[in-house]
Every structure is written in C-alpha cells, then in structure tokens.
Amino acid sequence: MTTNAVVVCTWSDARGDVLEETEAALTLARRTSTALGTDFTWLVVGPLPAEAVDIAQRQGVASLEHIEDPKAAAGQADGFVEGLTQYCAERTPKLLLFSQGFDVRLVAPRLAGRLGAGIVMNAVDIEASDDGALNVTASAYGGDTRRVYALAGTGPALVSLLANAVLPERVDGAPSPTVAPVAVDLASVEERVRVIEAARTEGPRLEDAEIIVAGGRGLASPDNYKLVEQLAEALGGLPGASRPLVDEGWVDSSRQVGLTGKITRPGLYLAAGISGASQHMAGCAAAKSIAAINTDPDAAIFRYARYGVVGDCLEILPELIRAAKQGS
Amino acid sequence: MRIVVCIKEVLDPDAVNNYALAGRLEIGEDGKSLTQTTIPQLMNGFDEQAIEAALRIRDAGVECTLCVVSVGADPSVPLRHAAALGADEVATIAPPSPEPDSHTVAQLLAGYIRSLGGADLVLCGRQASDDDQGVVPALVGELLDMPVVAIARAVEQPASGTLRVTRVTPDGDEIVETSTPALVTISNELGDPRYPTAASKLKARRVQPKALTAEELALEADALAPRVALTRQFVPTVQGNCEFITGDSPAELADRLVARLREDKLLA
User: Fold this and answer.
1) Which residues contact residue B52 at a Cβ distance below 8 angstroms, ignoring those fewer than 6 apart?
2) Peptide bond preceding B181: is omega within 30 degrees of 0, i.e. cis?
3) pTM of the full structure
4) I need a labelling partner for A227 at 20 to 30 A (CA). Which of A68, A234, A309, B21 fits?
C-alpha cells in the first residue's frame, strides 16, 4: 500500500463521459507523479473494464485498484463520497484526479467538502514540482481566460480534468500493474436522494458522433432548426445547438454543445449561424475539423474553423442538404 | 419553509466574451484581474435563476420565507434586485480576504444559514460565470450535512418535507426526490427569470442589506483558511487557420464546401 500517490479515479457507468478521457487523465497523472516523485495509482469505482489492465500498462500505472461495493457508484453520491472518504483516510493520496463527466461535477466537490480538501474543476493542465507544489491551470469565463491556482496544504488535492484538454500519450515497456480490490464499509450509508424517474437515453449521443451539424442564433426562428436536423441526417451525423437555442426553448437541452452542455469531439463539426462564443467552443474545439457558416466575416467562429463560408445559413443550409444528398 | 438563495456578483460574462472576441481582453499588472473597467458587474445568471426557482415554489402556494445572501465587497445592487423580487431578507457577508477560495465562501454561507436557525431549502446557481468552478454549493451542502441535488431545471415541494427535483443530465431529464433540508443547484434550463415591477424596484432602493462578518457568524480563522489560491490569469491564444470558400450563389458555396470536405475525407 502506498501513500502520497497520484490517483486517477474513474468509473465505467459514467454519464456523458468518453472512454478516451480516462487515458487523458492517466497521461496527465503520470506526468504529475513523475514530477512529484510519487507513486501512480488508478482507482476504478465499480467493476474493472475488460481492457483496464492493458490501458493501465500502456499508461505506466503502477497500481490498479478497484472498489467493488455497488453502493459506491458515482450515481449515488452519498455512497460514493463515503467510500472515497474511507479510501483517502487509509491511503492519504497527494492528488485525486477526475475526468470531468456529469457526475463528477457533484461528487468531486462534495468529496472535497467532506475531506476539507482543495479542489479545482475545469482543469486543463497540472504543473507539479518535486517540493510537492501543485499549480493547476483551469478554464474560466467560459473559456475566455485561464486561471492558475496553487493548491496549498498537506491533505489530498482534488482536480477535475476538462474533456479534450490533454492528449493521451502511451509509454512503451512499462510493467503490468498490480491489481487489488479496495474494501470499503458502506453498510450504514442510505442514499438521501432517490431517483423517481431515470433519464431516458435518447439514441446516439453527441459525445460519440463523428459528424455534428450545430445551429445557433443565426437560424433566426425555431422552425429553421429543422434545416440543421435535415443536414445532419443527410450527412449521417447528429444535430447540435448553441446555448441560446436551448434557453429559448427551441431545442431540447440534450442537444446543447458547450461548457455547460456536451463536450464533443467529432471528425467534422459544421457550425451554422454560431458566433463562436468561448462557452460554446469549449464543447467543440476538439473537433478534428470545424466548418463554419456565418454572415459576419469577423465572427470568432472563423478563428477556430478550418473551412469558412461567409453567408446566411438560411440560404446555404438548404443547398448543403441538396449537395449532401447528391452523393460524391 | 425557509429558502436561502446564495448569489454572487460577477463581471458580465457577455461583455467579457465580447472583449475576448475582439482580442481586447487584458490582464492587469497584478497578473490576475481583468483591466476592462467598463465591464459591468451583475448577478450571476444561474443565481438569478435560483431566485426564480424559489419564487416559483412560492407561486405554487407554499408559504416561504426567502433569504438571499452574498459574499462580497459590496453586492448591494444584486441584493436590492433580490429584495425587489420578493426576498424577505437580504444579507451580505464580508470576506476575510479580497479573494476568498471556495472553502472560505462556503464556510461563510453555511455560517449565515446556521445563524438563521437553518434552512429547509438552499438554492444556488450551478456555477458562477466568472470562475465556472461550481464548487461552493456542494461544500455548503457538506458543511450543513444536507443532500445536494445538482443541475436542476425544476424544483417542487409535492408534500411538506419532500422535494421533487428535475435534473438535466446528458441522457435527458432525471426526476429525483429527497427530504428537506436539502440544497439544489439550478441550471439555465430552468428558463428566464422574472423582472421586478417598477414599484417594487423603487421600494427596494431603500433596502439596506444586513451586513455580517465572519466574527458575527462565530467562525474560527482556521475554518476560513483557504486551500486554493489564484496566482495568475491569462488569455489563451487561438490560432486562426481558416480557408474561406468563395462562390457567387448559395448553391455554389454549398457545392464547393461539400466538395472540399469530401476531398479532405471529412465527408463520405
């Protein structure tokens, strides 16, 4: 058993999460543990994914641990927080690193409260030095600025890594990790929040989409969103939206791309009538390519886009639907 | 029931974004603060919606005492707005340092709620639009030993002592129930907050927020010690590399864009 380790904490039933993000967190944790000169542990809450040992090995994880107790699942915050509190009491980790999915937004801050630990959400990088100092860079103002926070104190520090912030890098020739279950006692935990009606998963997720066509304010009226849906269908992709459309009630919130919505990473992100506010770009900047249609040639979206069309999306979208249906 | 709403005054995020988009967002000599003095302060949008959530509970016929509290140097403008909307008490707590961290703020808010004799429901915005951290509500919940329901679009009290909350999850809406006292964080999907009437705004101009200090809330210096310190803020650079497609008509622009995307194997 090691103390003072850098521990990446993940679980497999996470909502809104992407598996690549686990590898990104492991990569950042490996760099951090190397800089600190401490051990590197991956803690899985719930059943170990089939590929966990392989992933751990290629990420240079020394110790792979798992908490099997079903009451510790992240969807059940009381059990999760109690389980992780017991883990931290026994292991006294230096740093607990999370990959920022939906449930993390609740359970990581609650755990920080229980432990009295320093916490930084929306992290994009960690700088560590061998004297134990941790400086965490995090996104602020919806992505308009970055803030650097120094984490003080001796207790564990908690950091939640924003999706798409770190490129996973593998290591060659690392030994296979030790694998060990971690026992926690959650017999006395009773969840105080009860699910009455579970969220219904509505088909394919934006997070997994290879092509996304997203619409923004430039669509001008709710009816025009169907152009976005039709083009997405013609291209074999999914429709997305910027936050104003959700706030106006034009589209369901499950379509919202951005810092407070979905963080996506498609091969192609086609933005129609979207200005490119940082809040929105936080949800699509990791697309391999962005194509943008906007009437304003100075719109911020063109700074992120690989391909730009200056024009009215209401005129161009119907033509794109036609061109897409014509085939190559 | 007693409802406490925690609010924060922030720099207008849209104005910050406009400066950023124009490439004119600058950091001051301290390396931390934004220098644009023309950016107005306003109530964090999610917090406005948290007040709206409280008012909707009152509208539903539940008898409520509504207290609105803020930690900050002088948040009297948003607190007067809250008073105009129908808050029965508005209070401000002076932070022990100019840049309190989440733990310090949470201790002050929890101290205030304890000083009231507790609350049946604490409402907060899901996150503040300046630091985007979203940490304070969960910390307050832990300090007060309350269940925390995060990222809600609706809060109802179907029966005394029970809360029914609709959460916005990546998989769609989830409906949960919990017992009071509880803390709920509100997301933008709740919808537009209301405006106060002209008459209530006028009346609220005379409201002086109750001003409190850490000492008055019987908080020890140890409990207020920050764990996280902001050391630097900077504006990230974006590399522009856009290839503009040209054409004489929407049809031509569309054909050329699709052809270009197919050429680069981004479309089949």
Assistant:
1) B186, B190, B191, B192, B193, B194
2) yes
3) 0.91
4) B21
